[in-house]
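Ops channel
N.P.: pipeline sanity check, posting one input/output pair.
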């Protein structure tokens, strides 16, 4: 074998473990889901193999599924906006800190050390009828009886912000940390105020990180299942909860597979729109 051929094969040899993992853990299960989506669930509970369009017809034509599909997109958009408004100042403060930057990053990543489910359920102890907030309000005399603050859309968004905010801060921080501070100093020396230098220099250069964090928060928020299940009410179910209900509760794998692929297709279209207007190259810049 020639030296050129050996060098050409080396990248593929190095990628073999990663490609094998992606194939076994992502591609093959996805193929099974596509196959299952065309099977037919009978009244006896048995799945009939074949090429049936009943599940897809139900998923695409039933207004129930269409209306619930809009809900997670709206909630994810609101969550992403809140994360951007809260995460950008935090990331800017960390990026411009002197000496204690690593400590602040460590404190920001502490939530990742705790299970996502535990973090979500902790809000019950804070906002519940006998939670810390209601106890404090009654003790201060602000209210005479507990206030119902759980199991609504606001608490779902609150739980998602709690879950997704570190992702936004990390992406924006990486983008801000790569900006030369001398650029702001140069703008100030040319007569720009600190606010003008931020709007005209820092903010445009940090937009890739903000866009990357926004895309990550939106996709994760739209596809979440645990937060609305724990903190939401009966009317706050998201599309992922329908997939969970169909597969786990009803054991209807064909319908659940069709619903999951439907959600995957919608999120895939949104990612394609992002790539069309911003480009995945901008996402790579925002990530590092």
């Amino acid at each position: 074998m020639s030296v050129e051929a050996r060098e050409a094969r080396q990248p593929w040899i190095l990628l073999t473990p990663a490609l094998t993992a992606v194939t076994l853990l992502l591609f093959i299960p996805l193929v099974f889901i596509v196959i299952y989506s065309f099977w037919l669930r009978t009244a006896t509970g048995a799945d009939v193999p074949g090429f049936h369009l009943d599940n897809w017809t139900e998923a695409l034509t039933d207004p129930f599924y269409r209306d619930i599909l809009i809900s997670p997109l709206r909630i994810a958009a609101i969550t992403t906006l809140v994360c951007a408004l809260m995460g950008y100042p935090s990331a800017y403060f960390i990026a411009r800190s002197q000496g204690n930057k690593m400590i602040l990053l460590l404190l920001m990543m502490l939530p990742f050390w705790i299970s996502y489910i535990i973090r979500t359920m902790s809000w019950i102890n804070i906002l519940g009828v006998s939670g810390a907030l209601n106890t404090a309000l009654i003790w201060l005399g602000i209210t005479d009886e507990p206030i119902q603050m759980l199991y609504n859309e606001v608490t779902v968004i609150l739980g998602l912000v709690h879950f997704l905010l570190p992702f936004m801060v990390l992406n924006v921080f990486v983008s801000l940390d790569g900006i030369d501070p001398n650029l702001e100093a140069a703008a100030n020396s040319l007569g720009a105020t600190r606010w003008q230098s931020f709007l005209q220099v820092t903010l445009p250069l940090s937009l890739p990180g903000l866009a990357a964090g926004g895309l990550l928060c939106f996709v994760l928020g739209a596809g979440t299942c645990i937060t609305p299940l724990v903190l939401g009410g009966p009317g706050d179910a998201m599309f992922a909860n329908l997939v969970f209900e169909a597969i786990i509760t009803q054991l209807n794998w064909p319908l659940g597979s069709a619903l999951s692929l439907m959600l995957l297709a919608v999120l895939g279209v949104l990612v394609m729109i992002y790539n069309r207007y911003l480009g995945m190259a901008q996402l790579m810049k925002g990530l590092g």
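N.P.: looks fine end to end. The longest strand covers residues 40-41.
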